[in-house]
Specification:
The structure is a homodimer of 239-residue chains. The first copy, chain A, is of the alpha+beta class. In chain A, 54% of the residues lie in helices and 6% in strands. The first copy, chain A, contains nine helices and four strands, in the order βαβαββααααααα. Chain A has a four-stranded mixed beta sheet, with helices on one face. In chain A, helix 4 packs antiparallel against helix 5 and helix 4 packs parallel to helix 6. The first copy, chain A, is globular and about 50 Å long. The N and C termini of chain A lie far apart (50 Å). Chains A and B meet through strand 4, helix 3, helix 4 and helix 5 of A and strand 4, helix 3, helix 4 and helix 5 of B.
Chain lengths: 239, 239
């Protein structure tokens, strides 16, 4: 039975991290909210009082009656089922730990354009967004990228993957982080890329994987846009 | 061998969620950074280039040479070892999912007083903090508390625990969330408490557990203060 992925239909957002894993696994899945009536199905499910394990928010995955939510939790679930995480327990946990650090980064990326409230428009919080983005670009983005570069560098199995010597879901997630950062903060990333050669190589290697390349070229891959997690406001990425 | 917990020594912060689990488990542990020279030990470990699985930030736990970081990941690790999480795989994952929603809430709590940058003082971002807190109190805190109340209400094993019919680490975490919210946003919580009777009962039940009660009365329990995650700025919690 196909996986059912539930996520906002017009953005990459956090759902994209799950989509990349499903695509790399060659898994059979339906992106429910992008189908006919899909948004209504998703919202009805979120509000269903009969649900004993309700998700707090999308993305969530339904698989044989089981509902799994929280991006990192979904990836850990998929990772063990599709050889996208190490089998060995302590390495599986290390992979999850890295993914949770990606989660932390994504919250900060979102808050660069919405530092006051997700319920307000960007236009209602532009000065605050400019201040927050300046700190993000100066302090936080370098700290995260240097951290992941360090993890690649010290991986005992070599610098080609974050964990062990095989692809895991967190490699796919780092690809997405770099793609999103290149969209939202191209100038900042250009400044930082020189000190992150292993991350850049990882991004290129992921993009060249046959299933990922096919996905990226397909209509299933939504473009980055101004409603997603990564947004391009040139004023937040000054020269 | 005792667990070694590494966390900032003067605040409850995210480390407190781990402390509560270790205390309830009756586990032997050392709160390293609170001991002599502990901060230096922690900072040296974070920067150690020989570390192949470096944490991004505290808290982290060392156990028999293994280092585990990210609060929810640490709790999942401890939960399976100390009967603080269900044995059954899908329930263990549901517990982790709930804890990751607690993680999301904690980021938002932090950002009520630091919406612009953690590297700046509160005093440097007071107007922004007031705007962000107003949205938090009006929209976000109710959404999170109503969600956890709903989870208690729909738990097939009854409303006394979030998962199944036994205490898990996420019950301890919700206790801490409510205690912290009562410290930081007493007026807002008073308004909301009436619609969260099961959460209130859970907080009381956790506080009355013998090991938790002994811990809370001990010098090991740091008081809430103005450096932690939950801070009391009366202007952020208006009548």
């Amino acid at each position: 039975m196909a996986y059912e992925l539930f996520y906002w239909p017009t953005i990459q957002g956090r759902g994209e991290f799950v989509r990349l894993a499903l695509e790399e696994a060659g898994a059979d899945y339906v992106d429910v909210a992008r189908g006919p009536g899909g948004m209504q199905i998703m919202l009805a499910l979120l509000a269903d009082p009969a649900l004993t394990e309700p998700p707090f928010a999308p993305p969530f995955l339904r698989s044989n009656g089981l509902i799994v939510a929280q991006t990192a939790n979904i990836l850990d679930y998929l990772g063990t089922r599709h050889q996208l995480a190490p089998r060995e327990e302590s390495l599986r946990r290390w992979t999850l730990q890295l993914q949770l650090t990606v989660t932390d980064l994504l919250v900060e990326v979102h808050d660069t354009h919405h530092p006051i409230a997700a319920s307000l428009y960007y236009e209602d919080q532009k000065p605050e967004a400019a201040r927050r983005s300046a700190d993000f670009v100066r302090n936080r983005l370098p700290k995260f990228l240097e951290y992941f570069e360090r993890v690649l560098q010290t991986n005992p199995a070599g610098p080609h993957h974050l964990v062990g010597d095989q692809l895991s879901y967190v490699d796919l997630s780092l690809f997405q982080v770099l793609e999103g950062t290149r969209y939202a903060f191209p100038r900042a990333l250009e400044q930082l890329a020189g000190s992150c050669p292993r991350l850049t190589a990882l991004r290129d290697a992921v993009a060249a994987r046959p299933r990922i390349a096919a996905y990226l070229a397909s209509p299933r891959r939504l473009p980055f846009n101004q409603q997603g997690l990564f947004r391009r406001y040139p004023e937040l990425d000054p020269a």
